[in-house]
Design a protein that fits this description.
The chain has five helices and no strands. By secondary structure, it is an all-alpha fold. The protein starts with 9 loop residues before the first helix and ends with a helix. It is globular and about 50 Å long. Helices cover 83% and strands 0% of the residues.
């Protein structure tokens, strides 16, 4: 079970922010470029490799948080979830209203988004345990305890 860590302040908070922004600047930029290149060129391997780079960025963020003995902030969690939802909705809208998706486009989208969901679930289950992960969702029960 994960332990609570005090929030960062001062130089530690600045260093943590710099590390996180740097890693996402690299992983996010290269990952997105590879995903878009995969879609544009019909190359499923390149597109899925872009999703792998995004997942590597997520793993690196977890490692940075561990090095600074902190967790994802509420703002980081909301930003990640909102970005994921916008990406999925954009993909679905393109699929429904676009001129037509080829097989590599479908493989890139479905495979990549499924991999991100699996990586997130692995993180949540290893961080909080299976029971702890579900108790985070059940707020009504926590208030009653």
């Amino acid at each position: 079970m994960a332990t609570e860590h005090p929030p960062l302040s001062g130089d530690a908070a600045s260093e943590h922010l710099l590390a996180v922004l740097t890693l996402w600047g690299v992983a996010g930029g290269f990952g997105l470029a590879m995903i878009l290149s995969g879609f544009h060129g019909g190359d499923a391997v390149l597109g899925l490799a872009g999703f792998a780079v995004i997942i590597a960025g997520f793993v690196a963020h977890v490692l940075v948080n561990n090095a600074w003995r902190t967790r994802f902030s509420a703002l980081q969690t909301v930003t990640g979830m909102a970005g994921f939802c916008v990406a999925v909705l954009s993909y679905v809208a393109g699929w429904l209203f676009g001129p037509g998706y080829a097989a590599p486009d479908v493989q890139i989208g479905l495979g990549g988004f499924a991999a991100i969901v699996i990586a997130y679930l692995i993180y949540v289950f290893t961080m909080f345990g299976i029971g702890g992960a579900f108790s985070k969702l059940n707020r009504r029960r926590r208030r009653a305890d």
